[in-house]
Amino acid sequence: MWPFSLFLPPDVDRLEARKDVKGLIRALRNKDRDIREAAAWALGELKDRRAVGPLISLLERDKESGNAAWALGQLGDGSAVGILIAALSSEALDVRTNAAGALGFLGQGEAVEPLILALGDEQNWIRQNAAVSLGRIGDERAIGPLTKSLRDSDAEVRSNAIEALRKIGDVTGQMQMLCGSDFRDVRLIDMYFTPVELPAELGARIMLSNEVSFNQLAKDRLERMIPGFSCLSSYSDIFLVTFDQSSEATLERGRLEQARAAAV
Q: CA-based Rg of the chain, rounded to a whole angstrom?
């Protein structure tokens, strides 16, 4: 007599709790898509390299398996780079989003150009993850595109681009070449950018530069444009005041003006 349990769907939670990697890999071929996705997620959590091949196979069979793309990033195996690059072109938003994030954990140089293209995706979640992944990979080819992303319409994309540029390293020379002006000359920066663009440009350069003299000049210039700017100390505060045009940033600028007025 066959045990009745053979006809029941796999209990993914139980398999994960028991760290039954083989059982979870078998579940990737279940007819129920929810079970396949749950098993893929569990395998990503367990980070067992035996799952790399089966997860690649799942993503090849099911082009909409966002959890398979995510899990391959958690496993960090370079053999998945090809399927994840292909997944950046998926019609499924969660697949593109997870693939953009996963590629950063693989650290493969061949993912740089596809991720640069992903910085132009119409969906902000994909642009956000692409910026993070480019920072993790650390390839200097991304400096120019990430610099352009400092003016992205999405605040988190801009924030992620700043952090990515900091991870890649000192980009003073690259910024000079890209902007066509001396990175360290605040007066020349004034000539190249409109009053609307200037606060964000100076804010970006303060966060990317290690030169004390330039940073002080730039901060003095911003102090004249944004009262209370000199009170700021963290990168996140500088970003909020100079880049973000959200209601939160507007309130922060108002708070700075009040703080300065009270100090006078």
A: 23
Tokens of 229: 């700017």
Burial of 33 (0-12, 13-18, 19+ CB in 10 A): exposed
Q: Which amino acid is at 249?
A: A
Question: For the segment 180-226, what is each residue's pLDDT rounded down to a tens digit?
Answer: 444 445 555 555 455 665 666 666 666 666 667 666 777 676 766 66
Distance CA(106)–CA(84), nearest Å, equals: 10
141 DSSP 8-state letter:
G
d(CA 84, CA 72): 8
The structure tokens 């053979």 sit at 6
- Cα atoms found within 13 Å of the Cα of residue 151, Cβ hemisphere only: 12
Q: Which ranges in 138-171 belong to alpha helices (H)?
A: 143-148, 155-168
User: What residues contact residue 175 under an 8 Å CB cut-off, 6+ apart?
Assistant: 147, 183, 205, 208
Contact 114, 86 (CB under 8 A): no
Q: Rounded to 5, what percent of the chain is helix, strand, coil?
A: 75, 0, 25
Interatomic CA distance for residues 246 and 155, integer angstroms: 8
The span from the CA of 173 to the CA of 177, in Å, is 6
Distance from CA of residue 200 to its chain's centroid? 20
* H or E element, residue 131: helix 124-137
Its pTM surpasses 0.85: no
